[in-house]
Amino acid sequence: MNRNIFVCIAFILMLTCCANKEEVNAPYIEVSFFTNLASREFPVMMDFNDMEKCSSGSINDSTYITLEEYYAIKSELLSLSTEDTIPMFDSRFMITLDTLKICIDYWGERWCDGNGRMGRFDPQLFYRIKCLSNYYNFSTPMDVENDWHVMKYGKPINYNFIGFEDDVKKRPIGFAKVKLLPK
Q1: What is the pLDDT of residue 38?
Q2: Dihedral of the CA atoms 52, 55, 56, 59 (nearest 10)?
Q3: For residues 85 and 51, is the Cβ–Cβ distance under 8 A?
Q4: Which is more confidently placed, 45 or 65?
Q5: Nearest to residue 90, comparing CAs of 70, 77, 106, 67?
Q6: Which residues, 6+ apart, have CB-to-CB distance to 112 below 8 Å?
Q7: Which of 70, 105, 159, 167 measures 20 to 30 Å from 83, CA to CA?
Q8: Residues 107-153: pLDDT tens digits?
Q9: Distance CA 82, CA 71 (A)
């Protein structure tokens, strides 16, 4: 009898350990960004190191994306080219994929990494990442309508405003960290 109980416990522990190991090794894209900033009139003035400190916390949310979306974004991120003529900018977003960790400016046009490399970023790719990570859900309907990317590419299908204080200036500035998981 004791042996059967021991075997059952060992089997359950083995299943639990294997399930957790698979989840840890699963591929994902991590997106970190400030919330409640769309209506603010001041720049964040964060550099790569500041953004890395802000994004060092735990994951707030996970969202599933298709395998096609995951591999398309991964391919574009891993093929970023560098330029020496990019001026410094304030970072608003951080994207982590495997060993790649980059910051992107508010307009989604420039990127930088922790090694001083910089380059141009595709605004349409940035818009797709913002949509997939539910970035717009932290913005009021008016902010979404006035967003440059939304005006150019359209309102996100998955937009669902997370209601906050009516007075935008009184809302706390937050930070979200979202894991995009391929399914």
Answers
A1: 61
A2: -160
A3: no
A4: 65
A5: 106
A6: 47, 48, 86, 89, 91, 102, 103, 118
A7: 70
A8: 888 898 888 888 999 999 999 999 999 999 888 888 889 888 999 99
A9: 21
